[in-house]
């Protein structure tokens, strides 16, 4: 880190103002330079003393020829002792256009005591003068000015210097005289007390600086005081100026007393307030009111540039008028200012140009994501329509799928392919309608809603908004109904006049391309669902995951860890070990995390070898053993193999709440009792009813299945209780699709016959034993494949789903058995074992016609 040498300081040119030691000044600063200077200052934290020092150097005065208005006394100098106010248009900023040759030779070293952002994106800094400096040589001018300086510490008055002693006494008495005049003006006591304290306590040099800054003087006079590092000259000049001011005050008081009677109470208050501000400002206690004026001008300009819609413009003008009438210390001032700032930042008419090149878009989608064919196809159709019709009206796409399957990154890729800006709005946990629609401005701490904030952030009115986790948005409550607000956002017929309570003028969202994502469908309110076109993004098979890893995740992680593609090589079988042994998910998020851990370890190894100059011993290949030493022992065993076969246990296929498929073990056990069926595992009503149906069917066919000895025996089931449990008890389960698995589990329990754990099943069963089709087949089958299931028993009416949707490699590795009725299921589940003593009756097949 570099130290700031106190003899070399960054130079901040200031216009029309002079900073003197002991005084504070507010500067408006052009952003680009500030960032650079601030970086320089704050980075060099080693040298605390000089840490936040800058040199404030006034710009040379413009001669009256160059600017004839400059030396005309300001009209507000009537009796007041406000310093000659700079022309409002000339800001006391430092900007790139100032060259060293424009600057005065003397300045003041200052410490930055506060830094605030302004509306225009710049900064204002409050600086405190420390000591006079002379600029000896500019070290460089770009990107900001920096100069070698000489510091002039404040000299003490030597005891034997009679002349200086005398001057100091004279300064104090002139100061007291000025104070007496001010007391007559009835200024507030705290200000006067402070001034009194200075006069009594401050050294002559400091007092000269302070008093001079409170009297009316021209820029040139102020520069003269700045140059006067010699005490004698400084005190003498100050006495002159003070005496002149006292004289002016006396005259003005005379006029004032004549006029005062004619002033209304309001005018008088205004007049006194002006004076108070001037004093406070000079004492460094007050904001620079010109800054606020600049704020308003700046706001007006920005509102003009924002191209507001007529209705918004009317509101803006009305509020601007109110703002101008307000005093900045009023609490309401900030509220109105923030509101106008928000209005000016909404992209009313700014938009990006769409790149509607289907071929390019196809290429982009293909490069960013592996697989996901349906989604890509649908997106391209969407773009094609957009190209032909030039209108975004149409259903909102909703990507539905488990976490980590690339829904968010697909959204980003769509935005990229369209050449649009992308913004993600996370709706998970949004319970309050105001979060979508904003708070009314009467509310303390009111803010615009997520949609308006998103527009503000992207700065254009045609971005791609990804409404993430739309299924987690809250429903009606005491805080309103966020999903109803979303409905308005997503409705192409209404969203050109979306009403954000904070903005309070209609916003046009019709150019925004909304894409929603959801993990599950059940919790999406039906009206919202109705507006959206669902595109399912199913979980990946191991094969797909390995492709994704080789093509996307691994190169991404290698680059993220500062390595080059040849520095880490992971073969497919090692990747397979990572995904099977360390992750259990439908998507690839954890897989990516584990790959990142491997890359991190390789990065350390690589850097180490490089440091020791033994790069030749570094091996880019990652072996299975490396994986174990980096990631530890495998977290997940082969799920199915782990489960020993037992009577009463059957592997079912589920569609979990997270939207992914999964396998689940249904456990049934019996005990002596009274014929009670107990069900556990956080089950919904439908699944409970399926269990009842299963038990009834088994009881009805108990003789046929060899469970009871005669078809009339009824005691068997009355002497025992049956308990069925669905493990992972904390996760809610529902739906009819466990019907066949439940029946099989009960048959297995009572017949003591075993279903191999590598056989899984799904399907609804009627009381007559007919097997009905269920949903989510693709996800369930993919999950079964992930869990190394060999045989899957499915309703025969689901055959088309397997044939149409399931990836070929999965189909190759799994045996599918399609069942019309429960007898087919039992036959397949018990793998040809003889399960019935009597030939099963022919079950008639339901007609679908
Ligand atoms: N098919 C794919 N091709 C390339 N990368 C993918 C694919 N699917 C997922 N990824 C990568 O997986 C990571 C996780 O994806 P992303 O964050 O988009 O998941 P998500 O589905 O939005 O999850 P969530 O529902 O939790 O928000 C990203 O780095 C993404 O690039």
From TrEMBL:
Residues 644-832 form the Lon proteolytic domain. Its EC number is 3.4.21.-. GO terms for molecular function: ATP binding; ATP hydrolysis activity; ATP-dependent peptidase activity; sequence-specific DNA binding; serine-type endopeptidase activity. ATP binds at residues 401-408. Residues 91-100 have a biased composition (Polar residues). Residues 9-246 form the Lon N-terminal domain. The keyword Lyase does not apply. GO terms for cellular component: peroxisomal matrix. A motif (Microbody targeting signal) lies at residues 847-849. Residues 62-100 are annotated as: Disordered. It is found in: Cytoplasm; Peroxisome matrix. InterPro entries: AAA+_ATPase (IPR003593), ATPase_AAA_core (IPR003959), Lon_bac (IPR027543), Lon_bac/euk-typ (IPR004815), Lon_lid (IPR054594), Lon_proteolytic (IPR008269), Lon_Prtase (IPR027065), Lon_prtase_N (IPR003111). ATP-dependent serine protease that mediates the selective degradation of misfolded and unassembled polypeptides in the peroxisomal matrix. Necessary for type 2 peroxisome targeting signal (PTS2)-containing protein processing and facilitates peroxisome matrix protein import. Belongs to the peptidase S16 family. HAMAP family: lon_bact, lonp2_euk. This is Lon protease homolog 2, peroxisomal. It comes from Diversispora epigaea.
């Amino acid at each position: 880190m570099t130290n700031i040498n106190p003899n070399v300081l960054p130079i901040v040119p200031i216009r029309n103002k002079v900073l003197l030691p002991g005084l504070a000044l507010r500067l408006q600063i052009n952003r680009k330079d500030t960032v650079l200077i601030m970086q320089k200052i704050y980075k060099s934290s080693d040298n605390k003393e000089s840490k936040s020092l800058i040199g404030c150097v006034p710009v040379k005065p413009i001669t009256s020829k160059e600017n004839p208005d400059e030396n005309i006394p300001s009209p507000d100098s009537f009796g007041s002792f406000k310093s000659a106010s700079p022309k409002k248009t000339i800001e006391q900023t430092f900007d790139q256009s100032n060259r060293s040759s424009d600057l005065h030779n003397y300045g003041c070293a200052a410490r930055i005591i506060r830094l605030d952002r302004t509306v225009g994106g710049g900064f204002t800094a409050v600086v405190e003068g420390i000591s006079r400096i002379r600029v000896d040589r500019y070290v460089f001018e770009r990107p900001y000015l920096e100069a070698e300086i000489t510091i002039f510490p404040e000299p003490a008055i030597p005891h034997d210097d009679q002349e200086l002693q005398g001057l100091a006494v004279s300064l104090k008495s002139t100061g007291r005289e000025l104070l007496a005049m001010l007391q007559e003006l009835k200024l507030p006591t705290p200000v006067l007390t402070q001034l009194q304290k200075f006069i009594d306590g401050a050294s002559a040099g400091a007092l000269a600086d302070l008093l001079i800054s409170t009297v009316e003087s021209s820029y040139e006079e102020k520069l003269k005081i700045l140059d006067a590092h010699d005490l004698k000259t400084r005190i003498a000049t100050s006495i002159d100026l003070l005496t002149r001011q006292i004289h002016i005050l006396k005259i003005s008081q005379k006029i004032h007393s004549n006029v005062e009677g004619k002033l209304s109470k309001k005018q008088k208050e205004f007049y006194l307030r002006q004076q108070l501000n001037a004093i406070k400002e000079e004492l460094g206690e007050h904001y620079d009111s010109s800054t606020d004026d600049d704020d308003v001008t700046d706001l007006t300009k920005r509102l003009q540039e924002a191209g507001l819609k007529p209705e918004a413009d009317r509101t803006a003008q009305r509020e601007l008028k109110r703002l101008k009438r307000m005093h900045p210390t009023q609490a309401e001032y900030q509220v109105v200012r923030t509101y106008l700032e928000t209005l000016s930042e909404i992209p009313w008419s700014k938009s990006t140009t769409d790149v509607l090149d289907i071929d390019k878009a196809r290429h982009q989608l293909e490069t960013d994501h592996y697989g996901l064919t349906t989604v890509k196809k649908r997106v391209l159709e969407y773009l094609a329509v957009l190209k032909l019709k030039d209108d975004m009206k149409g259903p909102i796409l909703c990507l539905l799928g488990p976490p980590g399957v690339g829904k968010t990154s697909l959204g980003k890729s769509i935005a990229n392919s369209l050449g649009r800006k992308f913004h993600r709005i996370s709706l998970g946990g949004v319970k309050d309608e105001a979060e979508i629609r904003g708070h009314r401005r009467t509310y303390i701490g009111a803010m615009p809603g997520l949609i308006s904030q998103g527009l503000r952030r992207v700065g254009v009115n045609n971005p791609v908004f990804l409404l993430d986790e739309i299924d987690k948005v809250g429903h009606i409550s005491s805080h309103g109904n966020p999903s109803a607000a979303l409905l308005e956002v997503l409705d192409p017929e209404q969203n050109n006049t979306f009403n954000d309570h904070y903005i309070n003028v209609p916003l046009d969202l019709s150019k925004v391309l909304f894409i929603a994502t959801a993990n599950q469908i059940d919790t999406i309110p039906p009206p919202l669902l109705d507006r959206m076109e669902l595109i399912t993004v199913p979980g990946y098979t191991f094969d797909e995951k390995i492709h994704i890893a080789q093509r996307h995740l691994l190169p991404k992680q290698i680059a993220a860890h500062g390595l080059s593609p040849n520095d880490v090589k992971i073969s497919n079988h090692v990747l397979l070990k990572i995904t099977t042994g360390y992750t259990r998910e439908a998507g690839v998020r954890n897989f990516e995390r584990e790959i990142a851990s491997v890359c991190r370890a390789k990065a350390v190894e690589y850097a180490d070898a490089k440091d020791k100059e033994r790069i030749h011993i570094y091996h880019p290949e990652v072996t299975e053993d490396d994986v174990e030493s980096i990631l530890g022992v495998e977290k997940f065993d082969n799920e199915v193999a782990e489960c020993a076969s037992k009577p009463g246990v059957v592997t079912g296929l589920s569609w979990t709440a997270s939207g992914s498929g999964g396998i689940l073990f249904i456990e049934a056990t019996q005990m002596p009792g009274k014929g009670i069926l107990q069900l556990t595992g956080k089950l919904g009503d439908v699944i409970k009813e399926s269990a009842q149906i299963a038990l009834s069917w088994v009881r009805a066919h108990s003789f046929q299945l060899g469970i009871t000895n005669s078809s009339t025996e009824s005691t068997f089931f009355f002497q025992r209780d049956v308990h069925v449990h669905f493990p992972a008890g904390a996760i809610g389960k529902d739906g009819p699709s466990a019907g066949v698995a439940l029946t099989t589990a009960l048959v297995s329990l009572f017949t003591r016959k075993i279903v191999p754990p590598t056989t899984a099943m799904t399907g609804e069963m009627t009381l007559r034993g007919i097997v009905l089709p269920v949903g989510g087949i693709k996800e369930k089958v993919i999950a079964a494949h992930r869990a190394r299931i060999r045989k899957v028993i499915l309703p025969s009416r689901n055959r088309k789903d397997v044939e149409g949707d399931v990836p070929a490699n999965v189909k190759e590795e799994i045996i599918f058995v399609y069942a019309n009725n429960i007898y087919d299921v039992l036959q397949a589940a018990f793998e040809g074992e003889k399960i019935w003593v009597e030939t099963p009756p022919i079950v008639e097949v339901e007609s679908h016609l």
